[in-house]
Amino acid sequence: MRACREVLNGAVPLPSLLDPDRLFPSDPASREIARELYASVAALPILSPHGHVDAAVLLDNEPFADAAELLVRHDHYVTRLLHAAGIELSALGLPDADAPGAVAPAREIWRTFSRNWRLFAGTASGYWLNDQLVRILGVDEHPSAENSDAVFDRIAARLAAPEFRPRALFDSFGIEVLATTDDPLDDLSAHAALAADSTFRGRVLPTFRPDAYLDPADAGWAERIEALTLGRTSYVAYLDSLAARRQYFIQHGAVAADHGVVQPLTIDLSPSDAQALFDCGMAGTLDGAEARAFSAHMLLEMARMSVEDGLVMTVHAGVHRNHSSETHRRFGPDTGHDLPVATNWVESLHPLLERFGNRADFHLVLFGVDETAYSREIAPMAGFYPSVYVGAPWWFLDAPDAVLRFRAAVTETAGFYRGSGFVDDTRAFLSIPTRHDMSRRLEAAFLARLVREGRVDVASAASILHDLVDTLPRRVFNL
After folding, report:
1. Nearest-angstrom CA–CA distance, 56 and 202
2. Rounded Cα gap, residues 201 and 283, in angstroms
């Protein structure tokens, strides 16, 4: 574990495949400033207030199976690009409903990945993979058809060591807080067991994710509401049951409720109108417009509940989920075919902000994948409303160049202190330190440019960078 930590903290020289000045500006003077700024925050603890790693991974603490399971199969950033090159998802280890039991062997998955390593050059996933391979797994050569088996075996040997169990990595990565994403009816037993385990020093927090219970257009919505309300299917019982489950999550350490929507639409319905739409939803008689109206009203209701119970409200908007119906049928959700759409925030959130926007005790963090919306709508809203915070670049925007564009787009309007801090939003456990390190390097690079341009002095830049990495996520997410 000590050796792993030393490599992560830069105490051990890195192989030439990993430039110690990666992502820093190319001109020498700016690069030197960025290098010094980055060094001041490189070893700060990781705060991850939004992610998708299963708490059971840390509770069970079983060794990771192999390189394919760890780096390929569960990372849709990786599988989607290979699929675009004509490789079947079943060849990458994803179970296929059309061919049950026909999952490709791990070594063959790794061979396929290695033969196509060139596809990841210049991509965010290529950067993360290279960092993980070199800095964490000690692989000092690019994957290829020729070295595939040797690299697979080298990683297998590394994963068999005690210091590469999930809990040991959690410690050596310097993770202080890790949030998961959970269904409202999850019993959170893994979280409770981790919290009660005196040998585990980290904080693993559940996050309330009620999407499937808010949109009556979703298949199985009425059945889920039956389970949520224990058969008491009135609108009042529905609201009470959601509030009760939120309290259950808070008792298990939750600090946030997360909402994934195509458009961040909010509508303030009267109780009688909401009751009527709820009843029609349970009967299965809502049309599309009525279902959208009800789910938009429920997004506003979630804001009301956050004001009352203190859960930070995060909204991830602008993604058309499961765009490929064939892929969804065969391989399920979260398999790489979620695609960005344009979003409208100012008009969509107006009813919500009319009621709660000026409350400083309400934290509303907005994440999008429509780049133009950050400078046009989200940053200006965060620059006025005390409740609104700019979420970090997410999904298609969490690549190095997009992160720098984001920083320039939002800072000139909202400054540095109306943001959420970085979130890694990952299912791939090994990528957590890689993604946080990338963010710290890019923030240092951006601040170095401002220093060189005479817009910020070095001492202020160092203070801002510390706040971006540590102070802001603690404050915004009440950590």
Report:
1. 14
2. 48
